[in-house]
Structures are given as C-alpha cells and as structure tokens.
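Response to reviewer comment R2.3. The reviewers asked that we include at least one raw input/output pair. We reproduce the pair for AAA domain-containing protein here without editing.
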Amino acid sequence: MILMKSSDDRLKLALKRWRDSLIDLSGKNRLLSFKHSRSATLEITSPEAAQLLAGLAKGLRFADLDEAAEDDEQGEPKAIAPAATACSGEIFTQKGTRSSLDSALRKLLRDSKQVFSDTGLWVLRLGVGFLDWSEDGGAKVCSAPLLLVPVALEHKTNGFHLLEVGDEEVTPNPAIAVKMERLGVEWPSADQMEDLPSTLAVVRRAVAGQRGWAVSERVVLATFQSHKETMYRDLLDNEERILANPLVHAVGLGPDAESDLSGLDFAPVPERELDRVQPPEDVPLVLDADSSQRQCLAAAVQGRTFVMDGPPGTGKSQTIANMIAVLLHAGRTVLFVSEKAAALDVVRNRLAGAGLEPFLLPLHSHHTSRKHVAQELGRALNEQPRARITAPARGRARSLRLGLSKYAEAMNEVREPLGRTLFGVIGRLNGLNDVVSLVPDRRFQAKELTSGHCDEILAAAREVSRAWRPVEEGDAFLWRGLERVESLRPSLDRVAEKTDLLRRAIERHGELALPLGLDDLPAVPKLISLLDLTASRPTVPPHWLSEPDLTPILTRLSDFEARRDQLIAVEQSAEREIGRSWGSLPRELAAHVPVDELALTNRSVPGVEVAALTAQQATKTAQDFAAIAAMLRRHRTSLADIAAMYGVPDPRDFNEAVNLCELVGFSGAEPKPEADWLDAQLRDAARHAAQELENALTELNRARGQANDLFNENIRTSPDLLVLAQRFAEDYHVFSKLSAAYRRDKKTLAELTHASAWSKAIAERLPEAVAWRQADERFHAAAREHAGRLGGFWAGEKTDFNNIRTALSLAEQIDAAAGAIRNNELLAAQVARNGMPSSIAIETAAVIRQDLSRWRASLVPAPHPGGRPALAQATLVEAAEWYEVHIPVLRATADMTRAVDMVSQSAPLTAARARHAIALVQEARRERAVFEGRQVADQALLGLLYQAECTDQPVIDAAVKWVGDARKMVPTGMPVESAESLLKATPDPDLAECYRSWVDSVGNMVTFWGEEQRETLRATLTGSFGEAAELIARMKADGSGPEEWRSLKQAREALAEHHLDDLIGRAAAQDVPGSRFGRLVERAVLQAWVECHLVADPRLAVSMAVQRDALVEEFRELDKELVVSAYARVIKACNARRPRTMLGPAAVINREAEKKTRHRPVRKLLSDAAETVHLIKPCFMMSPLTVSQFLPPDFQFDVVIFDEASQVRPHDAVNCIYRGRSLIVAGDQKQMPPTNFFGSSDEEDDEYDEEAPDSFDSLLDLCKASGVIRSLPLRWHYRSRHEHLIAFSNHEFYERGLVTFPGAFESGPGVGVRFHKVDGVYSRGVGRDNRIEADAVAKLVIDHFTTHPEQSLGVVAMSEPQARAIEEAVELARTGRPDLGRFFVEDRLDGFFVKNLETVQGDERDVIILSVGYGPDQHGKLSRNFGPLNKAGGWRRLNVAITRARYRVDLVASFTADSIPDSDNISYQHFKRYLEYAERGPAILAHQVVTEEADCESEFEESVAAVLRGWGYDVVPQVGVAGYRIDLGIRHPEMPGRYAIGIECDGPMYHSSPVARDRDRLRDQVLRGLGWELHRIWGSHWYWNRPEAEQRLRTAIEAAVDKVGATVAAPDPENLAIPSEHVARSKAEPKVEMEVVKENTERAWSTPYRKATVRLSPGDLPDMNLPEAQTQIRSLFSRIVDVEAPIHRDQLFLRARDAWGVGRIGGRIQANLEDVLDKMKRRKEVMVIGDFVFRSYGQVIARSPGNGAERKIMHIAPAEREVAILAIVGEAPGISESELIAEVSRFFGWRRRGAEITSTLRRDLQNLSKKGRISGDLDRITVIIK
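Raw output as returned:
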C-alpha cells in the first residue's frame, strides 16, 4: 500500500527543490572553480594583490602593450617579463597584445554595465586571494576566489583605468563557504575575513589539514554573477516559518494544499461599483488610474492576495505606485520586489515625483551600504515631509461626478418597461423624419409603454401595411377557418414532394419487401427496421442462419472459449513475468533450488538469502565475499606478527584485533610515558609526585606574584632575610629606629628591592618577602624528594605538568590495552619514552583497523545481502570460511538468473523470481500442445471467425446476437434465399428519411386548420398516393387571400388595445401609402415616449450643450486636483504614525546615523529597530537577493508586491513571500518567462543552446495555476502612440482584450511599424552575426538622433552576437559624429541601449529598432533557425520585443516574410506573420479586427454622419483597431493621413465605462494626448435644438481644421509631438518641504492632573459621621470624582475630609463614607475597581503632574498606568523595559525610581502582556493592535 504524502511533506519537498536550485556547487560555478574564458577574464600579474588594492582608491591604469607578442588564445595566464612588472602604477595581465586586452576590457565594461542596468547588481569584481582545493582527494584541483572586491572600469583617452566602487562593499566568497560546510571544513566567518591579510591567515589555518590544498595571493578580474547563497541560507534557516505561511502554501501547492486557503478567495469590486466602494474623492490616488487599475487598488487596500495581469503598456508600474501610495495612506507596510532594477526605479521615480520618496527605503543596487542605510534612516527619523498645497473642493468634485454619471446613465440606461435607451430612441427618431408626425390619442400611455407593447404596435402596423388590399375589398374572401397566419403553399409543396420521394424509395427494395409482405405503407416502418439491422451485421458463418436450432452450436462455442482462455491465461502469465520472448528461454533450465544453496541456511551463522538476489547482485556479492575472505586471512597473519613485536597474545576475533590495533596506535601518541609508568604502582607514585610539585610551584608563583612588584629575586638567596624580618617585627620601635643597626638593616633590605631605595612600604610588606622565600624553599625541598619519579619530564619551574598528566593518562590506557599477559620490555620499546616504535607496524595496524572497522560496519541483518553481525563474535578464520562457502553458490545462482534476464523484459530478476518464471514457461508450453490438437474441429465451427487463440470473443458474441435479432424480425422463419438476400442488403437511410419527412410534412400541414377538419384531412393524405395528390392540387388554387384577411383583422385589434387604431383612418386621410404606415406609427409612439422621459427625468434637467460642456470641464479640473493633491493626504497619514519620542529603536537609529565608521550591518540595524523602521519607512524596494541579505526573517510586511513576476522563478520569490501577509503578483504570462538564454552563467562565451530549456516556471505561472489566487487584469493600453504598434500583439496574443486608443494619425513615417530590407549576410560559423545588417542599424541610429533628438531610442537584437555586432557598428559610426555623444550616456530609464531579446523586458523607448540578424548565409541559404524564437515560448519574446516602442518600430531584416515557408511551430509562424505585418500593415490580420470603413454603432451616429457628409466632409465611423473607438472621425481635407477632429456622442461608447473618471476625463485626456481634437454631441441637446447643435458642430470642425493646420510647422509629420504619458500633469508639481521633527512634548492621550477644588460652608454642615450628612457627602464625592477620577478611595476620603474641615477620619466617619460610596456604586453613579473609584462614563486618560500635583504610584489606578504605558510604547515601538519604566516615571513626575515603582510597573507590563495588549521581551516591547 502506497501512502500519499501530506501537503506539508509535499511543500517541504518543494521548498527543498527551491532551496537547492538557488546554489550551484558544481564546477560550472565560477565562484568555486574559476577558469579563464577566451574573451573576458583577466589574470592580474602585476602589481601584487596588496599594492593593487591600495591603488584602487586613486585608480590604476592598464599598461600599454604593442601588437608584436602572440596572444594566448585560451586566455590562460602567461608569465610576464620582469621588466614590465617594474613599472609602478600600471596593471599587467596575461594578455600579450593591445587588441586582445582592449577587447577583453570592453566586454567586461559592457557586460557589467548591462547587468547593472538590468538588475542593479554590480558584478565586475576582483577575485583576490585564491584557494586551490579538491574534493575527496581527487585529482581535479579547483581554484576559488576568497574575496570579491567590486571595481569599475573607466575608458579614458589614455586607456582603461580600474577604480574602486565606493557604494559597494568587499564580500567574502559566499559559495566557497557553503561548499566547505558541505565538505566538513570549519570555514571562517565573514567577520574574520575583513581584509586580505586576515583572510589569507584564517583560510590557511582552516585548510591546514587538507592534503594538496593551497592558498595564494592570486588576483583575477571578471564578472561574477549574483550569488544567492544568502537566499539559500534564508530558506534553510527559516524553513519552519516559511512552511507556516499560507501564501507559501497557496503558491507552492495551490488547490492541493490541505491548509485552509479559503481566505484568499474574494470577489473583486465590480467596475460599476468602483465609484461607490472607492469614491475618488476619498481614495488618495497620487497618479491617474483607470477602472481596471482601480479594481486592483481596491483589492490591495482590502488586503487581498491576487495576480495583477499587466500586458505591455497597461500602466503596471503606475498602478503599483498608486497601490503603494494608498497602502501607505491606510497604514500598511509594503515590500516591493523586482529583479529588474528599471522596474524598481520607475515606481520609485513616480512616487518621488508625487512627493512620497521620504517614505521609501530602496535596498537594491547602490543603496545598500551600511553607512547609506543608517544615514537614510536617521534622516527619515529626524526629518519629515510637509506638503504645501491647497486641498481641493472634494465635495464639489463628488457632486459633479455623481451628476455626470447620472446623465450618462439616464441617456443610456435601459428604461423599463420599454427596454430601450433614450439615446437609442432619439437616434431612431432621427431616421424617421421622412414621415408625417401624428400625435397619438390622449388615452395612449407613453410612459407605461413596454417593449412587448411596442413590438405589438409596430408588428400590427406592419401587418396593416401588408394587408392594405383586404381593407379596400372588404369581406369577400372564401377561405375561412385557417388558424395559422403563415403561408400554406410551402407546406403543400412539401407534402407533394415527400409523397413522391417515399414511393420511389420503397420501389428500390422490391426483391426483399415483396416476399416478406413489406411493400405497403403501414409496413414501411418494419421494412426500415430490418434494413437498419444490416448496419450492425458482423461476419456470420452461413450455416448459423440455416440451422433450425442454435443450441448445439452455442455449446461448442462455449467449449472453445474455455480452452482458448486457458491457453491465453498461462501464456500471459509467462509473458507478464518474462516478456514477449519467453518462448526463447532455454529448456534445460530447472526451477528447483540446489542442495548447496539450501545448506547455507543450516549454518551456525545463517547464510545469505541467495534467492532474493539478482544476477548482478549475486555476482557483486560473490566478488565482495571473496575479497573479504582474503582480507580476513591476510590480516590474521599480520596481526600475529604485530602481537609478537609488542609482546602480547595473538588476537583471535574482531574485538581482540581492534584492541591490538588501538595499542599499536599509542606508539604514535605524544608525549610518551616513561617506561616505569607502565607499572600501575610506579605510575601512581609518579602521579602523586607531580601533584606535590605542581602544588608547591603554584604556591611559589602566588607568593612571588604578591611580592615581586616591590622585591627582586635576591630575596630567594639572601641569608639575612629571615633575621631582618624578625628584627623589624620585634626590635625596631620608635626610638630604636634612630640606631645605626636600623639604618644598616634598611640599606640591606633596600638592596633587595627593584628600586634599591628605602620606602615605608618595604617594612610594611616584609612579610610578603618572607612568604616568597619560604615558598621557594618548600618548592626546592619537594623537588629533591619527588623529581626523580618524573624522569625526563622534570624541568624545574618550567615543568609542563599538563604534559605529565597526558603521559600518565596514556600510560594508563596502554596498560589497560596490553592486558596482564605481556612482555613489558618489548612493550616499552614500542610505546614508552625513548623507545623505538616500528613505523611499519603502526601503518599496518592502522590499515588493519580501518579494514576491520569497514568490515564490521558492512555486517547487516537478514535479509540484506552481506555478512551477518554474528560474524563479529566468531574468530577471524571462521568468518573467512563463512564467506568462502557462499562463493560457488552465488556464482551458480548468478548464471541461472542471468540466463532468464537475457529474455526477460522485467530484468533484472531475483533468483526466486527467475525460478518462478521458468516454472510458468514450462506450464505454458504444455497448454499450447493441447490447444493446437483441436484446430481442425474449431475451424469447422467458426469458419472465418477462427483465429486460433487470437479469436475475438466479442466478435463471436456479436454474430450470435445478430442472428437472434434477425429471426425476431421474421417470426415465420427465413428461407435460404431470404437469408442470402438479407446478408447482402444494406441499410437505406434515404428510405427512413423519406418516411420521416413525409410524416412531418403531413403533420405540419394539417395544423393550419382547426380541430374539426384536421383528422379528416390527415386520413385523406395518408390513405393512398392518389387521394393525397388530388387534395394538394385543390389547395394550391388559392392560398394568399385568407392570409391577408386574417392579418388585417388581427392588426386592427392589436392597435385598438393601445388606442392607436384611429391612426389607420387618419393616415388614409393624409394619403399616406400603406407601405409607410408602419414608420408613421413608430414615429408617433417613440416621439411621445422620448418627450415624456426628457421632461420627467431630473437627471436630464441640464440639456444645453454649453452647460453640459462646462460641467464636464469643471469636473476634469477638480478631478485633476484630486490626483495632484492626493500626496498631501498620504504624507499626513504617514506622519501621524511616526514615532513621537527618540526612545528605543529610534535611539538606536540615531546613534548609527551619527557614526562615521563601524556601522552595524544593515540586517542587524533593521532587526534592532524594526518597529521604528516600519513607521518611518513603510515601503521597502528590494530585489529578491537583497531581501535575504538585509531583512531579518521576522521582518514582516502587510503586503508583498512583485513586479515583472513572469521572469521571477519561485525559488527567487519564496524568501519574500513568507515575509508578507498578503501577496500581489504583477506580470504578464504572455511576456518573457525566466530563461537561461544568453549569458545566464558566468561564461561570457556561452551562446544560445538548441537543447537548452526554453523557459522555467515562474512565480506568475505558479500563482495563475494555483487555483486559489485570483487574477485581476489591467486592460487600458497607453504606451503606443499609434494603434499599429499594439494591434499585432492585441490580436495575436491577447485575443483583442486590450482597450487601445486610436491616434490622430492614420499613417506617417514617424509612427507605426516600418520595415527595412537590407542585403545582409548571416555568418553561420564564427561570429554568428550579420555585420551588414548591423551597419544598417547603426546608420538608422545616427539618422534618428540627427533628425529626432527629442525621442529616446533602443535597439533590440534577436541574438547576443548580433547585439555585440550592433554595438561595435554604432561605436564606429559615432566616431564620425562626436556631436551626438550626449545621446549615448548611461540612463537606465531613458538612455540609448542595445539589448538582446532576453534582457529587454521592462524597457520602453519612443522608437525601437528591431534587428533580426539571422538571414541568408554567404551561400544564399536561409536557415529556419531563428534562435530562441524557434522555441515553443518564442512568441513571448517576440511579444516583448515588438511592444517596447511608444511611437515607432523599425524592423530591420535581411529577408522578407515570403522568403520563409509556413511552419507548424507557432512561435516561428508568429514571427513570419509579424514580418508580413511590418511589410504590409494590419491588413494581414483578421478582417473583423481591421476594417477600412466600419459601420456606425447607432442610428444616432448614422444621422450625424449623414449631416457631416452632406457638408462635404470625409467621415470615418468607428475609428480604431480594437478597444475604444471614436464614434466619427473627420479626415483633414488638406493633410492626408491626419484626422482633423473626432466626434463623440453620448451613446454606448460614452457610457461603456460606468466610472466617471474614465468616461469624462481619462479617455478624453488620452485621446488628446494622441493628437486628437474632440467635440461631443449631447443627445438631449440634439433632440430639443438640433439646428443649434448642428451649428456648434460645424463651428468646432472648422476651428479644428484651422488649428491642426496651424500647429504643423513643417510638412514632415514626424515633427508632430505626441505626449508620452497618460498621467495627468498639474502645472505645479507637488511641492514637499522637509522639516526637522521635534520630539513631541504635547501628548494627545494625556492631560495635566487637577485636584478638585471644593468649598463648603462649615456652619451648614452636619457632623460627618451622621446619616443626615450622606446627601452632602454624596454630592461632594460626585464633584471630586468628576475632576479626579480614577481616584484612590483613601484620597477621595481625604479630599472630602479636608472640604468638610474635619481634623481626622475616625471609625464612624470612615463607616459613613464607605456607606455613601457603596450606595453610589449600587446606583451606578460610580464604578469601584479595587481601591479606585471611576466615573460611570467616559474613558480613562493618563494624567501628568499639574501645578505640582504629584501622585504616588499607589494612588494611580492600574488602568491609568496602563494607558500611559500603551501610549508611550505606541510612541516608541520596540522600546526596552528599562527605557519604558524610566519614561513612564518621567511622565508621572517621579524623579527617583525606587523598588516599589519599578516592581509595580513591571507588574503592569505583565498584566498587559497577559491581556494581549503588548508583546515582546525585556529588550523589545510593542503594542498589539487589534
């Protein structure tokens, strides 16, 4: 039974795969095995490493070389001439020529800048210091750099210079650290490798024990791709945290996740609900956002996880910027991640332009140094932005928005009950102006008109028109009784036709039908059934039909089936076991088990189960057993010799052998013991001696240490010291100190000091000198007694007692290992001090011990093949014999099994299974012999059905069943002739169809009459062919008259129901022709309906065009102001959440910011100050790599946003995902996937590999496929300034799902897609480029910057070699145009670039040149290999490349689309179609997508178009390729390819967006940005005052024609400027001023403490202890509590006492006060909690000392203290406990904190923690926000 892994297990496996894919520990990793490439790695041969590093600050120049020397083609380092190295300040490499060196340097410069531009990662580094290492002692030596030093190349006039990169830090090689850890080498930490000398030293120590490893000061210059070891470590160390994150479950497992992911599902805000759910006046969008973008923003603010599908140019970066802004406003923290530096920069620039940069923390690219981050956080903490802008009139904007939406809704809403829109009906009325206008009867209810009523009225009117003749002729019609209104003639004709066809079909089967009586009409169904049976007729033996009884045949068939199935079963068993070749198994093979194999199981140590082994296993086991047996016998002999040498007994078994080897091992140990120490008694004596001497020496050193700072060594030998000490202690007193003896003794003692001068301290410290002297004497006495027992170890005071202890311990181990029976002399000669141990014996014993240990480890329990554990207890000889007896059995078993394997498809087989297979084959051979013996009889029974054992039983069963069915059809039996006829017959579908059609036609025709005539008519038509023909002929005589009469009657009745029947007579009176009566009725009805609604609907009160235009314009201005000023609301919200004090983490940040050097690592700083960092920098902008480098694992974000997620692999994203609570993934599955094409490795010379995978699963792919993460699309396309730029992708890849906007230019050289055919030649061998095409591209580049300097430019090549060729061609072309140098500076977002297909995603430029590169080779042969485009996902690369341009794409190719054939490869075919598109334009797309002259969308537009054409203008309806279309475009009369103006109505296209911002501002803004002049026609104004509306239209057109003509300064359309951004730009960009943050002294959560001031008149007061005083006491309590609550009850009583004027509170007063307070509590006038009295209403506010009113901590309620604590923690999240207690104490005015205050506040903290209000530990406390 297979157990399915749980989802957690599967996620662990996925996480392990992700983690392992982050690092490459193979030889392909340049960080582990550096090898020089041919073109772009340099070996720095001079200067040396230290001098090179020191010179980087000022820069070092690469030495000048000549072209005389031969260069090294392989790029391997050469020795440099000594003369060259002497040149100081210059760099020499292995390159021998100037050209090769310059080529390498140019490539390094180009590649490093390209990677930095794409990813923000600096990869050009010096590898300094190298470790030469090998794995497992292998012969292959790898070289790995130790330090990676970031450097930059600068190309100056005097050559290339190498410089340091200030913003990048030197890093140890992370890959070698991981590799060494895997190899078990204790590698130094990064902190130990801060510079080259320390790095070389610690690495040398770390690898000192590795044989063949070496450390050198070698230096190389190369690009080292980003290393992801930190990400690997992140995923490894935080696996538990990652697995607990539901987002990781959703991404990694999707619907297979067992955890509850239902919270990820949500319903997006519908577009129609956007303005209600997210009113633009309330949501601070800092940039414009269309409705699809706002749907994503709404989901983000709601905390949803989703995918944001962002096709090219749909404003993905703008949406992300808006998203970050609204999330910051909502108080969310955001981690914005992208591997593309440009994506991060674009969003950052947009937010910076909106004034929000102070809240962003970019941690990618060059923003990550410790100093930079510390200073940036310090600035953010001490400065805050302040917006200077006037708030817009949000209320007015809301009112205008609602009004405009209501108007659009009113004009286009489907009005019930009619079910039509005002706009549509007004348009229809414009088309009915050709008929007379008649007002309906007053009883006609226009407002209640339903769509059904309208249809009935119009249908009735049309019927009146058609029945005009019956009205004139009256009631003289003969046909009556028909109930159906449609024409009868088709039914009559159909019955006649079907009757004739049925007769003919029956006649075709006369031979079968006549004998069986099936030629009559009633029998036709049976004839059809019999013929249908022949369709399923199988092969049937003829005698089965002629036999009278089928029972004997069925019995014989059953017997055959049983025999056949038995044969098949046994042969299938053999085939399943062996395979189809089972028959070739040798017949001599036996299935029984040999006797010698059975004997193995009866041994004392049971043998191996040979039957369970395969042939290979048996052979391998036999070989292993032979080797082990030989080893055991060989070592048994060696061990005997060694035992004799050491004087110990010969070992017999494994344990004795290992013990002997261990004894021999002691011979090499140091220090060796004395020979005597091998004796236990002498060893104990030596140990005692060592202890005594060590104690004496310790005492001596202690005494010396106390005295030797004053006294010198002469103390130890002075003969008079003790006497002098005695005299000074006993004899010298006040007067005796004047004696000469005293002076002599002083001099003597002074000479015993270091200073040789007397001081008072000498006498005072003389006892210390005596103690030194005595300790010295005791030490020498001990030495005399014990030193001899230590032998050669004794060295006086320098004796190493640790060595002695080690030697004694070793002697004890030797004694134990040697045992009691031994020759001590021989033993000492090998293991004791001064002995001569045999090195050969030591080496031999080590080998034996290793071999025996391996053998012991190889012993395994049954049933595993190998030696058994019991052999370790047997003698070595017995063990060897056990192995030897197995060998012949194993070899014989291997031979047998191998013979079966040769024919088996299931090989390898075990021996048991092989014997089983032999038995099955033998049984199958026996069964076949039996079956083949019955072949003749079986063939006679089955005839053609017989196929031996392959005879198909279902075929036999089908034949038997068919024969039975045929007999049922003819119950009287079937003669032989009938049977033969039936066997030849086939089904006749024509007959069946004829019969069915005839029945249907008759049934249909009779329904025209009422029930009385139907059955009579049916009987006539089905009786005979003659009767049916006669009836049909009579009916055909007159069929139209009855229809007209009935129609007129029904139509009049229908009109009368609506009081409109009088219109018939009134129309006749007006001489209205009958053909126009229907239009007359329609106009009358619709006109009444329109005027009813226009007058009654208040939303349409403003109908004048001038007024409506003014409302729209005012709305646009206010809406723009909302966007422009939104940043101020975000700033205000973010500033409000800033820390209010400089405590806790804020203090940490300030300290780090003020440092000059030795800053904390970024990761450490963020960890220590996480809470504050989140408040001052709520948005981090990072790459996946820097997330793991700099963010602690618990540094969480509310939202993680990924951009360009189609290029992010899951293993690069999971480190970010688990740090978030919600996830937003932005990308496009139809754009670039993650790939390994072109330079994904460090090998610069790698090219596109045909066998390489096309792409890898991306984060976007996993999210889209998860089934639990919803996708929200962006739909509006803004980038393309001409629809042709996006039309191809929109049609081919996006299924026309993008909303695109037409430009005002139909054509022109400055816009769209241009095709340039050149006669290029593709170099298929060396180079793989197209130089002619590259030169053509270079010319286009120079021409572009010459003629269009205002437009940015990028070049995209379809291969990396072509990109290099273009770069070189452009460089060469630039030499002739130095004036264009400014266009070729580095600029990630707008600068000129040359990139390949793999690196261009995320970039956009005004003009893109796309170079195919591939083409005909020098022989004119054009290959169909177009690099990565040939792959299945190549179309995604094409989609990226062709959608990068804003204005124009120049496609440069060396062939045309006609030059390449069609293909089944979808990517290849897309490429061919794009070539055709570039050559011929959108005409190659589907006709329904691009039409030259589309139709008008509504009748209203048709009427307007008719007016415009009547004025002589060229009108184009529905201008646009896809998405949004302009209703009517008017071509400029004098400027071909240019529209003069666009005419928009307020119909469906206007109402297509229910969002006011989209409808009334953004669409207009985008279109005007594309060059359009626009005029809107308001439908209500057109209806009420059409002449005025037409005049306004004419005036607008004439003004637009003049304006467009005047704006064109030159005839070249390329000079037309089209805005490149759709974002609303205010005339005044947002202004932000930075102001210094002052520490908050005013706290909104607190108030000064006030004492209640209560004055009472003592003369009016009763005694305070009396019951009658309770009323006044209650009033007094209330006044005090109102001011001071919460107040301690003792303080409350004291306040009352003082107000009452009582001296002290006695027992009765106390009881009276308690009684009053208790009554107030019961009445709920106050609350009493513990000892504190609270108001019964309001919240508790913390109170600081006011007017000197300081309170003791015991008098402050815990609730009030908690309020203060929570507020202070909120002001300084992450504050430590000590800081918090100090700040709380300061707040309450306690200048001294005693134990009571500290312990009380700590209890408060514990209580808050238990309540779930705060979290953290002593160092970090934060508020838990619920």
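The longest strand covers residues 142-156. The CA atoms of residues 429 and 1745 lie 81 Å apart. Further pairs are available on request from the corresponding author.
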